[in-house]
Amino acid sequence: MFTRVIRSINSLFKSxxxxxxxxxxxxxxxxxxxxxxxxxxxxAIKVMKVLNEAGFEAYLVGGGVRDTLLGGNPKxxxxxxxxxxxxxxxxxxxxxxxxxRFKIVHVRFGREIIxxxxxxxxxxxxxxxAESRQSKEGMLLRDNVFGxxxxxxxxxxxxxxxxxxSLDGFSIHDYTNGVSDLDNKLIRMIGDPKTxxxxxxxxxxxxxxFAAKLSFDIxxxxxxxxxxxAPLLENISSARLFDECLKLFLGGNxxxxxxxxxxxxxxxxxxxxxSARLDRNEGFDQALLKLVMQNTDRRLxxxxxxxxxxxxxxxxxxxxxxxxxQQDPKNPPAMRMHKAAQKVIDAQLKHTAIPKxxxxxxxxxxxxxxxxxxxxxxxxxxxxxxxxxxxAYDFLLLREQTGEDCQxxxxxxxxxxxxxxxxxxxxxxxxxxxxxxxxxxxxxNSKEASS
Length: 451
Ligand code: ATP
Ligand code: MG
Known about the structure:
The strands form three sheets. Strands 1-10-9-2-3-6-5-4 form an eight-stranded mixed sheet. A two-stranded antiparallel sheet has the order 7-8. The protein is built from 24 helices and twelve strands. The longest helix has 19 residues, at 283-301. By secondary structure, the protein is an alpha+beta fold. Helix 8 packs across helix 12 (254-263), helix 17 (317-325) crosses helix 18 and helix 19 (356-371) packs across helix 21 (389-401). The chain has helices at 2-17, 42-53, 63-69, 85-91, 149-154, 178-183, 193-199, 202-214, 220-223, 226-229, 238-249, 254-263, 267-270, 272-279, 283-301, 308-315, 317-325, 333-348, 356-371, 379-384, 389-401, 409-418, 421-429, 438-450, and strands at 26-28, 58-61, 78-81, 95-98, 104-109, 112-118, 132-134, 140-143, 163-166, 172-174, 186-187, 217-218. It binds adenosine-5'-triphosphate (ATP) and magnesium ion.
């Protein structure tokens, strides 16, 4: 009993002191870390140098430091500075201030963009609402309260994302024990996880994304509130959620990310209908999504093009089947598909935005699934000229690979594309007959209508 009390007092003490961070950073000198200047983007170094020469502090931070320390290739480089966005803009001809909720400066070098962020501070020190705003639920609506290096480190999300690399001595500055978490492969929230998720629920998705990308575990206090807080994502704008979806599924680790999202019940706030189908244990949906995610990761690794429309077509394919099953069987197939697709899309747009161009492509991939079996006459050759034929054919192959019975259609199309003209004619002649009468029926319908 006594030891239990002591233990619980200890754990209380631990949980409150856990989030106290030192006033001074731990400084890791050049000879004790693995970041070499050669691995860092020249543009980022240039930005830091220009800022330093103008008398400002400048550090590389975020994924650029984290991924370089892990021996990987960062996707982009972010610089943090004590110069204000205006001061940064004046130093670079190609600089542009962007954002309102969170003002940053983009400095462009050809196709590369270096993101320069002014040190932010905790909102307790906010002096006016033009700089800081918080909703009733504690969500940060605006975050432009400037601060110093330490306050900037503490407002970042995870410890491994709050490591600062300086050109002065090429050292790393660590306020939150991020280097140790990096060594132990842990995603740990800075500060009290619940409060930090409340401030910005997108951090829930980021925890899952980084855990998947880096093959790290989510530290237990950071992981504990995720499922319970997942519904907070409903307060995030659908446009921002779509941007996050792109990072989740087009970051090269889609398969692992989808697994993490499901593990932490984060798929439901993004794709509720998909998540519900998966929870009903629809084996075919699981298999299709797994294949599509693997395929996407493989294509990205080979530097092949991927379109979000293809992934969306797969994510919403299950819900589309449900909607198709509810359609009036008396309607022609194209109309059933049209109505079902519209229903699925209308429901999804309440959660994530989807830009029109992706919606159009996604619908074409779906429509073509219904048209690929109809090959007689000139149809097959015409279908091959369709702009989305390739994507639709790939989608069909994935459906078949999951065990769906498409009556050999994938194999037929593979052969047909490779065949010369006479072989193609042979293949068409061998198709089962009997699709023609539809036209006649339509004629008689129109007669009826005109009489
Ligand atoms: P990657 O670019 O590989 O996705 P990253 O860590 O660089 O990973 P970014 O989204 O580019 O992620 O953000 C840069 C840095 O900004 C992060 O490392 C983190 O320190 C901070 N950051 C980004 N988003 C948030 C957020 N929602 N809350 C707190 N800090 C954030
Ligand atoms: Mg980044």
